[in-house]
User: Fold this.
Amino acid sequence: MLLSLGKTHSFTATSRQLGVSQSSISRIVNDLEAELGIALIDHSVRPIRFTPEGAALQKFLLAESQSIGAYLQGLRDKNFLQPRLRIGIVESVARILAERIVQSLNSECSHIIVMTGIAAYLLQKLDEGQLDVIICSDPFTNRNDLSRTFLFREPSIVIAPGSLKLTTPPSWHDLQYCGLPIIQYHPNNSGGKLQQKLFNRLGLHFINRLEADINAVLLTFVSNGLGWALTRPTSLVQHPELIAGIRSYRMPNPVAARELYVISRNGEFSELTGRITEIAASVFTERIIPEIKTFAPWTLDYMFVAAGKDGARRPVGKGIESNPLVL
Assistant:
């Protein structure tokens, strides 16, 4: 608990990180100070500042925790102690990737936790120490404390109800006057952010009355004829039950693409990150890409997938579309 306070300098942040109430943290500190007969924290200032005695105790505990960590890692290296796996995956690929990752690593781990959500939520859980590795579409390039490994790149596509016939490929003008409104991702969703960046860059404006924060809902709206949308091919692969009611089109130029990364904290879980990258890349190569080819074959020339644990990029198709608009 003192180590967490030393990192966060906040009772509130420490309570979130440890999953206990703020009052419990305060009570533990007070009880410890009473037992030792010394003040560990200067309670008159914010953010939290340790007294000289508190700083000395924290330094001692940090050294001890590092020794314990090294000992436990030694046990793991000798297979005496199996590691736990705590991974976060963005919703758009979680359904497919999670199964293979768990199957591949299940026998090597003592406990596995899989969480899904938008990129910002997964990063928050990584920062709070509740996740070890995340797979998401935001590389968080402003964070120098993160290690990121490329996994997959795919273009955006236009999807419309099967009953709506558009030119191939449609123009933005065709879409604006096709008789159906656009269905957008919620702005908190990475797909929504990508779409808004694209429209702002192109000076486009569409009147929309429907927004969704997850793929299943957006695809259902499109399948039922409520509108058209921009999405990624992997979204359709995760929901094959909806593909029959949806027609896919190449999006008008410039084609916007998204990239997926495997992310962890610098200097932590590098071996695990490499294993997960290899496993996830094999899922894209063996399952996801062949399925995409059946309904959107033109997208393969925009795709790249990790060729190994270090994230080296391998073109999926001919590689003739190597520079789509990555937002």
Summary: Residues 183 and 229 are 5 Å apart (CA to CA). The chain has two domains: 2-77, 133-327.
